[in-house]
Design brief:
CATH class of the largest domain: Alpha Beta
Distance between the termini: 15 Å
Largest sheet: 5 strands, mixed
Radius of gyration: 21 Å
Structural class: alpha/beta
CATH topology of the largest domain: Rossmann fold
Strand content: 15-25%
Helix content: 25-40%
Order of helices and strands: EHEEEHEHEHEHEEHEHEHEHEHEHHH
């Protein structure tokens, strides 16, 4: 089967959450004997064509101005999609789905994957919200959604979306063989308002527990300066690959009380390493806290006291009773391994191909 995945961007040196999902899904699909091409915009200085891990990556030129990227690439992307002549197309998110709404391209066999809803975010662009709803209402394709829960929308019911979660490489994100609980707490995120890192830092400045924060973003410099005298708070910068996996494996527990998430990939990466998490009641968060051994769920992400209290609570539990690492990891293996997730996509593609 020849599959074409369409996304906004795909820079192998700057992979965000959606791009990591697409990369891992593509690798797994290729390992099962299929062909995968990714089509996207050239947003930085990437090659227009390259091949990585068997995946063909094709990019089209666009004006680099934030407001003009999509507009100037629109027709080039549509042309590239039509020229690909794939069996099945899989646009990721509403912005890529918009490309498939009109003309000859709308008759292609495609499955639209949604990675979250703008209405769940604080102050989303008004026009983007309108276009997002327009895409979901007008698309002729079946829509797959990576989340079961949405704070502020009824999209899941209104557009009859089917749930297929994102996955994790459970063979890579695994339990540390030493079996010891780590000495530090970990957070991995883009350091911005949505990830709630400012409240995380405040909590640890008060409780004195050691925390390592991996990631970069607009608030990093400000927060690093504010908490530079707190030796227990360490900003590591962006981490990837084995370096990132080691951080998960060696930590005591993981904390990320985001105000909004489409899914929350780092939560399942932490739990795949057998670590309890502090998550928020968004994205996949409610599915992962099955009981207190799995961590804590923050219902009010604007509440500093709620975040601080749950950090202390989980830390005291681990100190007293230890960590149920195998129990935590088993839930991830059963529900979120890329092997099972890729099979669900391939089953969808086969049904669509035979229609």
């Amino acid at each position: 089967m020849k599959i074409c995945i369409v996304c906004t961007r795909f820079n192998l040196k700057r992979l965000g959450g959606v791009e990591r999902v697409i990369l891992n899904l593509s690798k797994k699909i290729i390992s099962k004997g299929h062909d995968v091409t990714i089509i996207c915009k050239q947003e930085w200085d990437e090659c227009l064509y390259e091949k990585h891990a068997g995946i063909k990556i094709k990019r089209v030129k666009c004006v680099k101005s934030p407001g003009l990227k999509t507009l100037t690439a629109f027709f080039s992307l549509r042309k590239s999609i039509l020229e690909e002549k794939a069996d099945i197309y899989n646009p990721h998110d509403w912005s890529s789905g918009f490309l498939f709404l009109f003309g000859k391209i709308s008759r292609l066999k495609y499955l639209l994957t949604s990675h979250g809803f703008l209405a769940d975010y604080e102050n989303p662009p008004f026009l983007a919200k309108i276009v997002e709803k327009f895409v979901f209402s007008k698309t002729k394709a079946e829509i797959v959604c990576v989340q079961k829960f949405s704070k502020n929308t009824s999209y899941l019911d209104d557009y009859n979306m089917e749930y297929i979660p994102n996955g994790v490489h459970t063979d890579l994100f695994s339990i540390d063989k030493s079996g010891q609980d780590g000495e530090y707490v970990l957070s991995v995120a883009s350091i911005d308002e949505r990830k709630n890192i400012a409240r995380v830092c405040k909590a640890f400045s008060e409780n004195g527990l050691p925390i390592k924060i991996a990631g970069d973003g607009p608030l990093k410099k400000k927060l690093a300066q504010k908490y530079k005298k707190h030796k227990n708070i360490k900003f590591l910068g962006r981490r990837e690959g084995l370096s990132l996996i080691k951080l998960f494996q060696k930590c005591k527990f993981f904390v990320l009380p985001s105000t909004a998430e489409g899914f929350g990939l780092v939560w399942i990466e932490a739990q795949s390493c057998g670590k309890p998490i502090i998550a928020s009641n968004v994205g996949v968060g409610p599915e992962l806290i099955l009981d207190k051994d799995f961590g804590r769920l923050i219902n009010d992400t604007s509440s500093q006291s709620d975040i601080s209290r749950n950090i202390i609570s989980l830390n005291e539990q681990i100190d007293r009773y230890g960590t149920e690492s195998e129990k935590i990891r088993k839930n991830i293996i059963n529900g979120y391994s890329w092997d099972s997730i890729s099979d669900k996509y391939l089953n969808k593609f086969e049904v669509l191909l035979n229609k």
